[in-house]
Amino acid sequence: MNAAKLDKLCLWHPFTQMQEWMEPRFEPVVIVEGKGAELIDANGKRYLDGNSSIWTNLHGHRHPVLNAAIKRQLDKLAHSSFLGLTNEVAPALGARLLDVTRLKGRKYRVFFSDDGSTAIEAGLKMIIQARRQRGETQRKNFITLEGGYHGDTVGAMSLGRSGLFHKHFGALMFPTCKVMAPFCYRCPFNRARPCRGADARESRRCKWECLDELRRAMKQRGAGAAAFVAEPLVQGAAGMLMHPHGYLKEAAEICKQHGVWLMLDEVMTGFGRTGAMFAFQRERAIPDVLALAKGLSGGYLPLAATIASAEIFEAFLGNFSEFKTFFHGHSYTGNQLGCAAALANLDIFEAEGTIKTTARKSFLLRRLSKIFWEHPNVGDVRQEGMILAVELVEDFSSKRPFPPAQRLGQQVCDAARVRGLLTRPLGNVLLLMPPYCTTEKQLEKMVAALWDGLNDVLPRPKASALNGARKKQPGAGMAGN
Question: Are 341 and 69 in contact (CB under 8 A)?
């Protein structure tokens, strides 16, 4: 029995309507091989990995440095317990992480886990336990952004409650105080009219009401708040909501004024995605807790890290009889293969000058993506580094969205797949988040495949406008491989 048939008989996929998946007419793409920015299916068809294998793969598939590092470690030891023991690679990785986050001189500590949800879960438990052990028992609540998404474990769901994803689990979750997300395109306080050709953050007209709301929340609830939790610069699963620059720095100052810790979720934005190694570095905001995952191992193995300040760590120190220990852990904490891959990942950043090369590619992606403004059903085109989001709307002037049940974003991505591009939308927001090894020609092909897929599904612009836009872009209109 081939893999596709066996899959339909045995497996349950995440974020997937399995009734559709199991229909006889539906034929899953079975990925069997990868190289660089390409993935290859069981039929030999090549695809460009337009979302970096769900936002994880940084340097491409089968990178020789990552492969070699894992093989070297495998020849020594794959895994041993981190409870009461240590190993050679986890401490080395911890030191490197404190170095690249620039938190080394502040005496932060690194706690390893498995994925983004567990990194968040560990962080919020550290915060609550530290507050109690410091005698700050009134500080037991969290302030979070509307639309935030931090994972699907119970604590992570509570911090980032998605109505669509989490509506059945309300009884399991603890309450949080939500403040408005600083998302200029759909901000009710943005007085600027929709403007074709410009990210809404560039044309916005407001008085930073989003920060005023945070200030009010801090005045009302700050004495009972343990931490403010946010995805810096880009809220991923909410639809790649991109924040105006300056918001996070000011939010961090507001937290400091009220004695509220700042917890940043860099699971998606970390490791070069937004143009800096970490998004918080661009905003010059220092977190008390930092959650990392996805790109940590270069997209090779499940690995996550929660980095906590000395102030939090020291709340756990004491005699055993005081039971101040952080009684939380994972079977694969400090896994040697994952840590070896993560160290190699950081080596690649240094050896290949990844931040500089991605800056050039993100500039090209910005130029290529201007073609989407030529489509009447594109409401916003926004970008941070190597993250591009194209929001589809039924009406440009009113920003009225298409009904979610139409699944237009998915239809566009399905059409793009025929042209050799694999990507996955967030509702009616189209995404490109390429691996950093993607060549300029491959970037052109990705944009062209998504553009052509969009025109397959929704009415085309006038031919004159379309042709004029294409002439400005080398490689636009090229499809396939």
Answer: yes
Burial class (CB in 10 A: 0-12, 13-18, 19+), 181: buried
Identify the CA nearest to 147 among candidates 382, 426, 424, 432.
Answer: 426
Q: What residues pair up with 308 in beta bridges, in sequence order?
A: 109, 289
In the DSSP assignment, the letter for residue 216 is: H
pTM above 0.90, yes or no: yes
Tokens of 278: 């970490």
DSSP 227-281: EEEE-SSEETTTT-EEPPTTHHHHHHHHHHHTT-EEEEE-TTTTTTTTSSSSHHH
**Measured between alpha carbons, how far is 177 from 117 in angstroms, rounded to an integer?**
20
| CA angle (458, 388, 452) in 5-degree steps | 30
pLDDT in tens, the chain (481 residues): 899 999 999 999 999 999 999 999 999 999 999 999 999 999 999 999 999 999 999 999 999 999 999 999 999 999 999 999 999 999 999 999 999 999 988 899 999 999 999 999 999 999 999 999 999 999 999 999 999 999 999 999 999 988 778 889 999 999 999 999 999 999 999 999 999 998 999 999 999 999 999 999 999 999 999 999 999 999 999 999 999 999 999 999 999 999 999 999 999 999 999 999 999 999 999 999 999 999 999 999 999 999 999 999 999 999 999 999 999 999 999 999 999 999 999 999 999 999 999 999 999 999 999 999 999 999 999 999 999 999 999 999 999 999 999 999 999 999 999 999 999 999 999 999 999 999 999 999 999 999 999 999 997 756 544 454 445 544 433 333 3
Dist CA 62 CA 46 (whole Å)? 15
- Domains of the chain plus CATH, in order, are 3-62+354-471 (3.90.1150.10), 77-352 (3.40.640.10)
